[in-house]
Amino acid sequence: MSNKFRAGICVLMVMFASGPSYAGPFADEMAKCLVRATTQEDKTALVQWIFAFMTLHPDVKQYSAVTPAQRDKLNRQVSDLMVALLTDRCVNESREALKNEGMVTIQTSFSVLGQSAVQTLFSNPEVASGLEQFGKMVDGEKLKKLIESAK
């Protein structure tokens, strides 16, 4: 596999945390398979990997102590997971999606998988409690006025 192809795959993987893209029926089947074929341990690795990459940004770097060795370990785990999902666990769905809808299916399908992994994170009671604390600080009256003005 060429370095250019690998770089393209990596970019698509990072983009799985981005907004929604058009997904055709084959990408939908591929995404469903990726979610079904991913264990809780896999989802934890994905969330950790997303976090580790987010902490590379200069605006948030100060809030993390992720070491290069930890990031390398997560890179290996998630790259192995990605290859296993595409070439083993969901090989038929991946092949059909790529054949019928092209490379964008990787982005759209992994976006769904990323959302599933992040949902797992937010379902944790400690995270939910933290979100509840955040919610108490939001000015609900201002938001209510905005919503009512949009009707």
Characterization of this structure:
The protein is mainly alpha-helical. The chain has one domain. Helix content is 75%, strand content 0%. It has 8 helices and no strands. The protein is globular, with a radius of gyration of 18 Å. The relative contact order is 0.17.
Please write out the topology.
Blueprint: H1 3-14, H2 25-36, H3 40-54, H4 68-89, H5 91-101, H6 104-122, H7 125-137, H8 140-149
Strand content: under 5%
Global Rg: 18 Å
Order of helices and strands: HHHHHHHH
Strand elements, count: 0
Total number of helices: 8
- Gross morphology: globular
Unreliable residue runs? 3-12, 15-19
Distance between the termini: 53 Å
Which characteristics define this entry?
151 residues; disordered N terminus; mainly alpha
Compose a concise summary of this entry.
With 151 residues, this protein is mainly α. The protein has helices at residues 3-14, 25-36, 40-54, 68-89, 91-101, 104-122, 125-137, 140-149. Helix content is 75%, strand content 0%.
